Amino acid sequence: MIKIDTVPLGPLGTNAYLLSNPDTKKGIIIDPGMNPQPLIKKIASLDIEAILLTHAHFDHIGGVDEIRKLKKCPVYIHDLEADWLTNPKKNGSARWPELGADIVTDPAEFALDEGQVLEFLGIQLKVFHTPGHSPGSVSFLYDKHLFGGDVLFRLSVGRTDLPGGDTNTLLDSIQDKLFLLNDDVIVYPGHGVRTTIGFERDNNPYV
């Protein structure tokens, strides 16, 4: 049985997600954000197999290097944002210095791509390339659980006014990929509360 914990981190309340198997004491992390101490406490007794990034904006990657060095685990990101990890101008941390220092991490070990299937913890996660909020945004689907980063929120969508963002591309990603999923798929967003594909398809005013 896979346990899913939501850990809001940093000044923007970015949701980090910890998927773990209590029996094997193994886990994976999706988007370890800034000020990751609460997440680090949660993983103290776990063997972390990987860090998966939905995208490389600073508030989603702030804890990458600290956790990677602590747990000796690889990082996965889409190639379109591979160089954002090493560039504070691209990841946005240089744009808002009042929120913290420039964020620079080592490069990711592995690339993500559309249709890829990852296997961790005895489960599979399917990768969807869902650009629009950022060029390399991806979403991860495990069973009926979708980890979508900043693409789709409850009654809202991701902002597209940052470098590399595009509103039409974002709406295409939602309509042509995410909204093809079943109604009961739970959406775990990068910020805020969970929702479902069916609820958003019927009620989201932006799509």
From TrEMBL:
Q: Kindly state which keywords UniProt assigns to this record, in alphabetical order.
A: Hydrolase, Metal-binding, Zinc
Query: Reaction catalysed by this chain?
Result: 3',5'-cyclic UMP + H2O = UMP + H(+); 3',5'-cyclic CMP + H2O = CMP + H(+)
Q: Which Gene3D superfamilies does the entry mention?
A: Ribonuclease Z/Hydroxyacylglutathione hydrolase-like
Q: Name one Pfam family in it.
A: Lactamase_B
InterPro entries cross-referenced by the UniProt entry = MBL_Glyoxalase_II, Metallo-B-lactamas, RibonucZ/Hydroxyglut_hydro
The record ties this protein, via SMART domains, to: Lactamase_B
Domain Metallo-beta-lactamase, by residue range, is 13-191
Q: List the signal peptide residues.
A: none
Q: Which PANTHER family match?
A: HYDROXYACYLGLUTATHIONE HYDROLASE GLOC
Say what the protein does: Counteracts the endogenous Pycsar antiviral defense system. Phosphodiesterase that enables metal-dependent hydrolysis of host cyclic nucleotide Pycsar defense signals such as cCMP and cUMP.
Protein name (database record): MBL fold metallo-hydrolase
Species: Paenibacillus hexagrammi
Lineage per the UniProt record? Bacteria, Bacillati, Bacillota, Bacilli, Bacillales
